[in-house]
Amino acid sequence: MELYNFNRKYIKLEVKIIIDSKISTQFQYIVRVAIEADATNLTEIRVQIDGETENLDREQGESYINESEFTRIIRNDHERDHNLFLVAEMDNRIVGFSRCEGTTLKRLSHKVQFGVGVLKGYWDYGIGTALLKKSLHWADASGIKKVTLSVLETNEKAIQLYHKHGFEVEGTLKHDKLLSDGKYYNTVVMGRVAE
Q1: pTM
Q2: What is the mean pLDDT of residues 1-10?
Q3: Which domain holds residue 65?
C-alpha cells in the first residue's frame, strides 16, 4: 500500500512497504520525510554507516554532523522546494536515509544530487531501493528534470540498481578515492534525466 501526499512548501511523503527477505521472514519498514526529532538518531547512524562501508566518501567520524546541524538541515529541506530528506524506519528505529539536494542557482535549479545510506545489517531488504524510488517519484512530481549521483566503481549492486531506474553513466573520476587497501579507485558519475 502506497500513500502519497505532496505539499509544495512542506513535502509529506509516507510510504508503508512490506517485503519478504531471502529467508521468507516478513519485514516491515516505513519510508517517510525526516523530521527534526530524527536529528539525534541521524547523527548516530551516519557515523555507524560510515564505519561499515567504504562505498561512501567519509571514514567513520569524518565530516561529523551533530544534532543541531541535522536539525538545521532538516528544517532547511522542509523549506526548500528542491530538497528532500527521507528516512527508513524499521521497528521504530531509523535504519537508512536519503537526501536530494538542489540549489537556488537558476542555471542549476533543474537538478538535484541524490545520496543514500543504509545500515549494513539492513542491506538486501530493498530499503535503499525504496528510498531511491520515493526520491525519484518526488523529483518527477516536483518538476525536477535531472537527478545526479556518484558511486564507487566497485559498488556494482548500486550501479546496477541505478541503471535499472534510468540512470546513465556520465563520466568517471579517475583515482578519485584512496581506500584502506592503499589503492586508488574511480568514482562513477551518473545522471537520470526526466523525459
Answers
A1: 0.85
A2: 40
A3: 2-144
